[in-house]
Amino acid sequence: MNKMRGDTAMIKKTRKEIRSRELALKLYDAWVRERQRRPGLEIPKDKAGLRELGLKNFVRQLAEPRLRHLKQLKEVAPEMTTADTVALLVMLELPALEISTLLHKLSTQLMQDLDATYFSKVNQADNCGCGCGCGCAFMLDLPWAERINAHMDDKPFSIDPFNEVGLPEKERDSLLIKDFLSSYEALSDSISERVNNRYYQLGDIFRS
Question: Residue 9 pLDDT more than 70?
Fold first, then answer.
């Protein structure tokens, strides 16, 4: 009986993991396609127009899409694993160089403790901003777009999407680094295979 229950639990866990990975991939692909449809730009006539254009670009190309992405992820996050949710958020928030830096830090932490958690207070002293969960309360009174802009100026690695997307605190704090790395690797491979490769293949067609 216990073995049957264990098998059933394992099947449910595997099904959720498959469903979770597929949801993460669909979201990422949709976000890529959405970002391809950027609104047309007006040519500024003077410095004041250039500053205004810069603000519009920030809102249209970063702040507004980010807000939509977080809302979409929040809707399906309960159907996803915590590791996949965090992996997708890291992809959403950090540029490639910062992601590589984070992966290096995490691997170092993992060598020191095989059961190290992603959001541990000790590790976050090293990772500050790669999901620190600080919330930056002093910025909360700012309008949303200004808050994101201030984050990027003052603490470029401490934007806090993990709380914004509503990750349960218990699940968030128990996430193991090794589980995050496993999800991040699998999701990265899936994105390369099913999203990025279609653009590489398109380039091959026009080069041949």
Answer: no
φ, ψ for residue 139 (rounded to 5)?
Answer: -95, -5
Nearest to 194 by CA among 41, 9, 21: 21
Return d(Cα 18, Cα 187) in angstroms, integer.
Answer: 11
Is the pTM here over 0.85, yes or no? no
Q: How far, CA to CA in Å, does 186 sit from each of 43, 158, 172, 179, 191?
A: 42, 25, 19, 11, 9
Counting Cβ atoms within 10 Å, is residue 202 exposed (0-12), middle (13-18) or buried (19+)? exposed
Residue 153, pLDDT score? 63
Report pLDDT digits (tens) over 158-174. 446 777 788 888 888 89
Which residue ranges make up each domain of the chain? 50-207
**CA–CA dist 156, 188 (Å, integer):** 23
Q: What is the dihedral of CA 172, 178, 184, 190, to 10 degrees?
A: -130
Beta-ladder partners of 176: 117
